[in-house]
């Protein structure tokens, strides 16, 4: 039977590549994001391949999240796989110069938003005693790097939430796992540096970063394992990257 997958942050980067990959592989999709124009374009593209529904909400807004997920038509209401992907870094500043707006954005989106969406999806999974949740963490959830302070804290929180969710939902047979990428060339750095494209592009110069499609392929692999296999925690790096800060620019 066709599985239904809800992907947050499907309008760009890892989420969009995953939606595209899963559409080609005949998963029924619920694609979410704030940019309505992009959702509409992707709906057009994917509807030739599979059933697709769009949800336009900001993960920070608890009521919007609740209302959007409650509005799903019956064909899409039974969510088999939740991919908690929406998130970004905002700023890269030493703690003494950190901007409170950036801190709020990262904590509200990367941690609280992930929880709000999960809160609306988990009850259905519990009732059906089945489901699979993929939390997109980061190498920044395993290590801290200079000026990464609050972003790293949010991804460490995702790591803890991933472990906690897996324990709490174990009794219902629900699979929970995290995928923790290293550097992936998406709009991530453009958002982090507030639209400064030159600075964003410089992050990926001199080595071959991961592509969003690399992570999409891995997500597809993870959710296609037989039921008794749960890939609980995966760190995925570009070959040139050995740690959050060690990148070999000579290969
Ligand atoms: P992108 O900036 O390309 O994509 C981010 C996605 O998140 C967009 O679709 C955006 O949609 C959505 N999003 C952001 N804020 C909100 C919000 N308030 N409400 C709803 N949706 C939101 O970055 P990536 O694809 O790289 O990032 C995806 C995930 O991967 C993030 O969790 C990130 O932390 C993680 N990650 C990224 C790495 C990288 O190097 N790129 C490495 C490790 C982890 P919209 O703006 O339309 O709402
Ligand atoms: C994004 C990876 O190390 O560039 O989560 O912050 S990093």
From TrEMBL:
Oxidoreductase found in the keyword field: yes
Any Pfam family the entry gives: adh_short
Molecular function via GO: oxidoreductase activity, acting on the CH-OH group of donors, NAD or NADP as acceptor
Domain of life, per lineage: Bacteria
Annotated keywords: Oxidoreductase
PROSITE patterns with a match to the protein in the record: ADH_SHORT (PS00061)
Keyword Oxidoreductase: yes
Family: Belongs to the short-chain dehydrogenases/reductases (SDR) family.
UniProt-listed PANTHER family: ALCOHOL DEHYDROGENASE
Descriptive protein name: Malonic semialdehyde reductase
Taxonomic source organism: Flavobacterium rivuli WB 3.3-2 = DSM 21788
